[in-house]
Amino acid sequence: ESLNRAGIAVFADKPWATEEGALKFLNDALGRDRPLTVDIMTERFEIATILQKIFLAEPEVFGTLRVEPGKPTVYKESVHHLFKLVNGKVLRRPPWYFDVKAQGEGVVDVTAHLVDMTHWMAFPGQTVVFEKDIRLLEARRWATPVPLETFTLITRHFEFPAGVLGEVRNDVLSYYCNGDIAYTVKDVPVHIRVIWNLEGPLGSGDTHRSIIRGTKADLMVRQLPEKGYVTEFVIAPHGDPTALAKPIQAALDRHGKIYPGLFRAREGNEFLIEIPKPLRTTHEQHFGEARGVFLDMLEKGGEPPELRTNIVTKYTLLVEARKKALASPCEKLATA
Predict the structure, then answer these.
(1) Whether residue 72 has a cis bond before it, omega within 30° of 0
(2) Which CA distances in Å does 183 have to 69, 189, 202, 294?
(3) Which of 33, 60, 141, 287 has the greatest count of CB atoms below 10 A from its CB?
(4) Backbone dihedral angles phi then psi of residue 240, each to the nearest 5 degrees
């Protein structure tokens, strides 16, 4: 916020707010008289996410958002692992990473991406105002146990930092990195879940699962163990699948110049959109793509009119969800 106040445009990673006291600075930084200030939402550039957004806007395929009692219209789940190998070496994390007061926790950290994708896809170009459009229903947090020996493998430090000692019992840290949020946005029910396991199954990495329910079809992003956790995008029609074959292909044809090589394949009653390797860009490449959008806004001196309000809404929701989770039992909400 101090850089922003000094007249410097800011392009920074999440989380921007982990507790209520940060919201004043956030609102100041996003004021209309301040320089361009944008958070790095890399998941917008994942091809499966892009396809979900494309087909959500195809009424001949998706219909409209389907709201049913007791079911979220949008469900997004992100699973990560604290101990993992990258290029054959243990990914090293700093000791403060395990301090939720510094790093943030499941309800306010990775969750920012899932909330961002939900609002960006379901309400493109629209302003989402927290006080008017959001109704927070439930929020939960729960811990992943981290033994000292695993903490040492990850951090190369032999003692837990002072800031987390209140959560340590018998050399095991209760790390509150997991979170659930259930809310409505413009009357559409949403369930967001972030999970950090200690270690993942062999061959797995971080995974993302998403379903958006429509009146004609559901749009799914999945990573199945039997397929080597490769990210897939699936369209699941509610009626006769053959009725959607032509509109699906028409949509792929319209977007073919920007996303070449996408192919419609039938799997039972569902359609798998096969994604060619050149479109499967890496997380590191997504940072470059996000930077490009930011620099383009700077160069043109313009930004989407909803940008600042929607960033404030996103982090206000997360802060309020954390407050609710702190007052709730430490357990998961029912699975969507």
Answers:
(1) no
(2) 13, 6, 34, 29
(3) 141
(4) -65, 115
Question: Phi, psi at residue 242, to the nearest 5°?
Answer: -65, -25
Q: At what angle do helices 111-122 and 47-56 cross, to 10 degrees?
A: 30
- For 41, other C-beta atoms within 10 Å of its C-beta total 20
Helix, strand, or coil (residue 75): strand
Using DSSP bridges, classify how beta strands 207-213 and 74-83 pair: parallel, antiparallel or unpaired: antiparallel
Separation CA 104–CA 235 (nearest Å):
34
DSSP letter string, 163-223: GGGGGEETTEEEEEEEEEEEEEETTEEEEEEEEEEEEPPTT---EEEEEEEBSSEEEEEEE
Inter-residue contact 140 to 46 (CB < 8 Å) = no
Tokens for 11, please give them: 């392009």
Query: Contact 146/82 with Cβ under 8 angstroms?
Result: yes
pLDDT above 80: residue 87: no
- How far apart are alpha carbons 164 and 53 in whole angstroms? 40
